[in-house]
Amino acid sequence: MRILAVGDSYMPTGYFRRAFAPLEGRHEIAYLQVDREREFVPASESELGLREYQGDPAEIAGAMAGVEVLVVQGAPVTDVVLDASDRLRLVCCARGGPVNVDMRAVTARRLPLVTTPGKNAEAVADLTIAFIVMLARRLPEAQGFLADGGQLKDNWEGARFMGRDLRGLVLGLVGFGQVGQRVAVRALAFGMDVLVYDPYCEAPVPPPLIHEAQLDDMLGCADVVSLHARASSENSELFGPANLAKMRPGAVLVNTARETLVDETALDEALRSGHLGGAALDVVHSSPPGLPHPLLRHANVIVTPHVGGATEETLLQGAEMIAQEIGRLESGEPLLNVANREAVEQ
After folding, report:
1. Same-domain check for residues 84 and 210
2. Smallest Cα–Cα separation from 314: which of 4, 19, 3?
């Protein structure tokens, strides 16, 4: 088979080269690195429907002759790209949500689209626990003290930032998918009690975890609330004034899922009033150009620029998951992570 793997600035072709090494002897593999700085103005309906992409569809289409398997991470996949090869059999996107792929165009051509769900679950779970530790130990405030010129005079200085052990604290997980489950395992190892709220969770929640049927019940007793739900129209700004007010006084909020889950204006007020004891967010709405994010005015807030899945292992695992799917196609086995399975099978 002829395979085209397209890298970008987040996931360069080197990750695909490492993962595809076992395929090299049996297939013709070409690698294309898209230019982050190359200007591209979307115009067609197919192009306008994409998000979070990098590169020009015309550049990718120019390399598509005879391609049977197209592999991308963040490169745009439009109708023009798909039609540039009359031998295309499989489209692969090495991310959980293929927002840079015209799903409708792929499905209309009866092509399966495989993705890599859960590739970043371990990394995001690690970051979530790191956030919880940092908030419990008041590390943002302690670091801010030193950054502002505060001096460590003696052993008594630490009393300024008296924190909490994680053991005995109650963690409330909103969402119990691949990330939420891994966070629960880590939290139990720290001695935390774990509550789970997920109205879409079909499998039973294993003890000693406790499955809460109502979000209100969880919010009233959790010391830490951590968000791991998929974004949807139903849960947009789920943590607005009402639910933030239901959190117990002094509790902290962690969001490593999607920025749409949190009303940041309401969160700002809950922090200002002292109702919440802190927040850590890896995903936030954009701040005004050249200015720090507004929530960083609070000493007990951590904001990071969506680094949850930004690890070497995450990217390599995504490439390896794609390599395994190509192996299944080669051997005639069913593909595993097909995003448009129902439409293609019909």
Report:
1. no
2. 19
